[in-house]
Fold DUF7745 domain-containing protein.
Amino acid sequence: CFTFGEVDLVPTIEEYIALLRCPKIQVDKVYSKAVNVSTFVKKLMNILAMSEQWVSARVNQKGDSKCIPWRSLRDLILARPDTKKKVDIFALSIYGLMLFPRALGYVDEAVMNLFDRLDKGVTPVPAILAKTFRSLSACRSTGEGRFIGCAQLLLVWFHSHLWKVDKVSYQIFSKNYSPLRELAATPRRDNITMEKWMEILQNIKDKYIEWKALWLVPGEILYRCEDFDWVPLLGVWGAIGYAPLLVLKQYRSRQFVPVTQGLA
């Protein structure tokens, strides 16, 4: 979790589900890599509705994985007359470039494997958080590096806890309410230097924190897996442990020090 001065915070599954407005039917089915899946080329042929020759000519090898350049997907979006196909290709691009970035300007094969399962009711949230936590953990363990994850969602989550609001909008109970849309329209200061941010975060106090995000409607909490008081999050490139019991204040619950034996 993040530690800012006296404060511990962590993005939770429930918060990201609320931000992304995942339908109820899509909340409980977690992604895991399937066996005997179609090849990357075959999956791209299916979603892009293009020939094997066209797809194969545009698939690149980046390191140990295959990927397709965004410019090829962009050209298809602009050329396609079919609106549904445009939306599908654009959605795949968002998943590959924003939610699960890896090689800059490319959509990775591993992302395609997850995207292919969305219509089967799989939720992307645990995988998004796994990618976020793994990248932050790598930066922290080495003392350097660049965060490679969904920075946009993390920034929205960050703002939701560090800027107090006087009252809650009744619109959070509307089925058409979107916290992302509302937060995107909220003016933010952009003239704070990195040094000033470091000073603010190192000295932040409990009283300045909005512990429960105002757009989070109370509900069930995923906090354990069988006998363990933590949850393994499966991502597209690996797994990591997740312990929301460390931040019960984000659910307006009484905080205590949980047992995290075995948490990696």
